[in-house]
Amino acid sequence: TDPSVLPRFGCGSMGGMLALPPGQGPHQVGCTDVMVGHTPQGVFLRLFYPCLPRAGALQPLWIPRSEYCGGLADVTLGRRWCSALLSIAIGSCEVPVSWNGPLKPRSSGYPLIIFSHGLGAFRTLYSSICTELASRGFVVAALEHRDHSAATTYFCTAEAGTEEWIPFQRVPQGQKEFYFRNKQVHQRAQECVRALRLFQGIAGGRTVPNILHQDWDVSVLKDNLDLTKVAVMGHSFGGVTAVLALVKEPSFRCAVALDAWMFPLENLLYTEVTKPVLFINTENFQTPENVAKMKRLSTRNSQTRIVTVLGTVHEDQTDFAFLPGKLFSRIFGRRGTLDPHKALAITSRAALAFLQRHLKLEEEFGQWDELLEGVGDSVVPDAPFGRSHL
Prior knowledge:
This protein is α/β, with parallel strands linked by helices. 29% of the residues lie in helices and 19% in strands. The protein has a single domain (29-56, 100-151, 177-381), classed as Alpha/Beta hydrolase fold, catalytic domain (Rossmann fold). It is built from nine helices and twelve strands. Helix 3 (127-135) crosses helix 8 (340-359) and helix 4 packs across helix 5.
């Protein structure tokens, strides 16, 4: 069948199967993909950054390739054969940013955020929060992890045009989940550090060849980053990854952990986390054990904060929150009662207030400081525990 004549469930004229919100900040947002190195030890990320307006700018696909639909179908539905249906439903959806748009220069340099995705996700599924942060004046590097926790990912071998795919892996039978996940979280945190080293190299004038040969030269970042202002951020498995990255890398000044899944972190490391963390939780994901672990960290640093956004579920901190109700419910079950645009605004504003405080930014994000104390509509410090799921 000619794919161009397949029914389009909504990214075209039928009202929008997925309508991701554009950034609300003063900057337009550009986006590009960067892959460095020909082995799994390289770096693969999607970069969101403030850009100059450009007439007729293309928008990137939200699901970058059909292989990711296969991975998603396997992880979320347990049925790889649903891949074609998923591809029809969401395969043509776009992110409202300028693909390979020209970087907007900034002599003082942009602060940098390294972003870590959750279990079974990949680099593009947090485009809404990454776009919002970039529109407020950050360069955001959304990693794609190669520890078998992504729905799928790949690297390009040195042989021209050859790709090697890294599939999602469930916990092997007979293996304790903690040991499996603990090894992964250490690899993920190391990948965050590696991404930072990449940007430090670029800022130092090192030539970095982008294997993907995008029409965008990463060397333009050289004089436009302020690497004294670097944070690490992530969701779920990526949330605990961000916490561990703070231990591994002194250059990370603070971490923002969205609905962090604390289980994979070994107890010994809690005393090592001496820098501030902002935990932004959803109402139904957390367990008392998980929050108790967050509170252990808050005793180490008086600047660490734990807030919960009421009326939200775990997926509300991903782009899936912007899927229409029926499709969302079919894939994930119950959805939150809070409007996803409002949930995104609360999450991003709390993060921005925290980042202003700990990266010492000269912005007006302090206007949202109350959110850090759980003050405001829909936000509370700690919350009643709903059902938990991973």
